[in-house]
C-alpha cells in the first residue's frame, strides 16, 4: 500500500484523557504501578495526569503525587495537561517534560468547558505556553471539537484554522486535533487536513480520535494517507463516558497498534505489553474496556 | 472526498451469519418478527437462514418454518445459505429469491468446515449452483478466509483467485469475499482487490468483514476507494463467537451505515429502523451487541 509513513509516534493519554472520563476511582498506588507498566511498553510519550483543579476532575486529584512517584524511563517524555499558571506551577514541581494546554474550536464548547470565550482563552494559554517554553518544556495545544460540536454541530475548517494559528503563534510545538465526540468520518478528516496543509507542517499535527461511533481506525487510516504520523490513544480504549456505558472512549492503543503493525508501520511499541497494561487497568476498573483486541486476546 | 461510489448495496446477513454464531436460541416467532422488521428498514437483500443440516447449526434448525412464515416485501431479495442439493430442495420449498453456496480459499479451513478438499467441493457446489440458476435464483458464492486462515495463516491472492475463478465458471452471480476471522488490515484488502481486478468485474464482488479486531470499517473504506459497492453486515454487529465473549461478529450494519451516510453515499436504509431492529434482537439475546452505535444511541 503506497503513500504511508514508515514510522508513527503514538502518545498514550490513558492516564489523563482515559481516567478523567471513567467513573471509577483508581488509587494513586495503582496509577503509579500502571504508568510504570506503560513506561516499559515502548511509548516515547505518556500524558500521565492533569493539573486542573481537583474539584473539576476528582479522578485526577492526585496528579502531583503521581508525578512525584512514577519511575521515569530514559527516552520517554512525561507530559501533563495544564489549564493555567497555577496548574503549570504544580506540574513543574511534580516534574514534566511536556505541557499540554487545551481549548475548543467551537465557541459554545469552549465556553461550557473553560467558562471563557475563545478570545478570552488565548491570553491565558499564551502565558502558560510561554512560561512552559521558558522552563524548557515541549508544549502541545489540544484543540477540541475540530469536526463536530455537541452544541453547534459541524465546525468550519476556518474556525479550526483560526484557533490553530493562534496557538502556533503563541509558541506551541504541536497541535492535537480532537474529534472530541467521536463523530467524524474519513471525508471530514481529509477536508480538515487539506484545509490545514498549506498553513502547518504535518509534523506538527497530532490526531486525537474518540471511537464513539467506531470510525476512529478508518479516520486514522485516512490521516496516514494524508501524511500524519502522530496520534493520541489510550490502552484498551479507556475513557468511555460514564453516562453512556458501552460507548467507547479514545481510540484504543491496541487497535491502532494492530493496524500499524499490519501495515508494516513501525512504532517501537510491544503489543504484548500493551495487552498486559490493558488487562491491568481493566481489572482495576472492574469493567470491560471497549478495545476489540482486548476482548479478543483475553478470550483467545 | 473523491473516488467514492454514489450508492452502496448492503446485504443483511444477521439472521444467518449473525444468529449461527450466537449461543442463544431465538424462537421461530421472534426470528419471523425480527426479519419482518428488517424487511421494513430499506434493505434490498436479507439472508434469512441457512439450510444446512439442523445438527450442524441448531440455532437455524427452523429455516424451513422461518422461510414459510416471513412476510415478503416487494423489492427485497430473500436469500439463504445452501450447502448441498438437499439444502437447496428445502430452501426452494420454503421460498428463496437467492441461494448462497460457500467454500474456503484455505485448503485446511475448507476441510475442517466442509469435510472435503477444495477440489472435492467444486462438483458439489457446481450442481447446486446450476440447479439454483435453473430455478431462476440469483446465486452468491461465499469464499471464506480470503485474507488469513486460523490454520494456515496468510492466504495467497492466487489461492483466492483460483477458487473465485471456479465459482464464476460454475455460474455464481456474485462472489462474497470473507475476512472470516477478522484479521485483515487495509493493505491486505487493497492487495486482494488489485489481484482480482483484472479477472472479475467489481460489480460482482461483495466484501464480507468480521470486526474481531476493529478493522472492518477501515477495510470497508479501502474497499470503497477500490470501487466496491456491495457489503455484507449484521445489525448490531451480531455474531460474536460464543467462545469469546466481547469479541465482535460481523461488521455492524449500524456502523457501516453511519460511515456511508457521513460520506454521502446512498443506501436507501433507515438508520432509525436499523437501530430498532438492533435493540429488538439485543433484548431477545439478553446481551450487549458490539456495535458502537447501538451502545451509543441506546444511552444517548
Automatic annotation (TrEMBL), chains A, B:
InterPro entries: Aldolase_TIM, HMGL, PYR_CT
Keywords for the protein's UniProt record, in alphabetical order: Lyase, Metal-binding
Record domain Pyruvate carboxyltransferase: where: 8-275
Residues that span the membrane, as ranges: none
SUPFAM superfamilies xref list: Aldolase (SSF51569)
CDD domains: DRE_TIM_HMGL
Entry GO MF terms: lyase activity
NCBIfam families: PRK05692.1
UniProt record similarity statement: Belongs to the HMG-CoA lyase family.
Name this polypeptide is given: Hydroxymethylglutaryl-CoA lyase
Organism, scientific name: Oceanobacillus locisalsi
Amino acid at each position: 500500500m503506497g503513500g504511508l509513513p514508515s514510522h508513527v509516534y503514538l502518545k498514550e493519554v490513558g492516564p489523563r484523557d482515559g481516567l478523567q472520563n471513567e467513573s471509577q476511582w483508581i488509587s494513586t498506588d495503582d496509577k503509579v504501578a500502571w504508568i510504570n507498566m506503560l513506561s516499559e511498553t515502548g511509548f516515547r510519550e505518556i500524558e500521565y495526569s492533569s493539573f486542573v483543579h481537583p474539584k473539576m476532575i476528582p479522578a485526577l486529584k492526585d496528579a502531583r503525587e503521581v508525578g512525584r512517584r512514577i519511575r521515569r524511563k530514559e527516552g520517554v517524555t512525561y507530559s501533563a495537561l495544564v489549564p493555567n499558571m497555577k496548574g503549570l506551577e504544580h506540574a513543574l514541581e511534580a516534574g514534566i517534560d511536556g505541557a499540554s494546554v487545551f481549548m475548543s474550536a467551537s465557541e459554545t464548547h469552549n465556553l461550557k468547558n473553560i467558562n471563557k470565550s475563545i478570545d478570552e482563552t488565548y491570553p491565558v494559554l499564551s502565558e502558560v505556553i510561554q512560561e512552559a517554553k521558558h522552563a524548557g518544556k515541549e508544549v502541545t495545544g489540544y484543540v477540541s471539537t475540530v469536526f463536530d460540536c455537541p452544541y453547534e454541530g459541524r465546525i468550519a475548517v476556518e474556525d479550526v484554522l483560526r484557533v490553530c494559528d493562534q496557538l502556533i503563534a503563541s509558541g506551541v510545538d504541536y497541535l492535537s486535533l480532537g474529534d472530541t465526540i467521536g463523530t467524524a468520518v474519513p471525508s471530514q478528516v481529509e477536508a480538515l487536513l487539506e484545509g490545514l496543509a498549506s498553513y502547518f507542517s504535518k509534523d506538527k499535527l497530532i490526531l486525537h480520535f474518540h471511537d464513539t461511533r467506531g470510525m476512529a481506525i478508518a479516520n486514522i487510516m485516512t490521516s496516514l494517507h494524508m501524511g500524519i504520523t502522530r496520534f493520541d490513544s489510550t490502552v484498551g480504549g479507556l475513557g468511555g463516558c460514564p453516562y453512556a456505558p458501552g460507548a467507547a472512549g479514545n481510540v484504543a492503543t491496541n487497535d491502532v497498534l494492530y493496524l500499524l503493525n499490519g501495515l508494516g508501520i513501525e512504532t517501537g511499541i510491544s503489543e504484548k505489553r500493551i495487552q498486559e497494561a490493558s488487562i491491568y487497568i481493566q481489572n482495576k476498573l472492574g469493567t470491560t474496556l471497549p478495545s476489540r483486541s482486548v476482548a479478543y486476546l483475553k478470550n483467545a
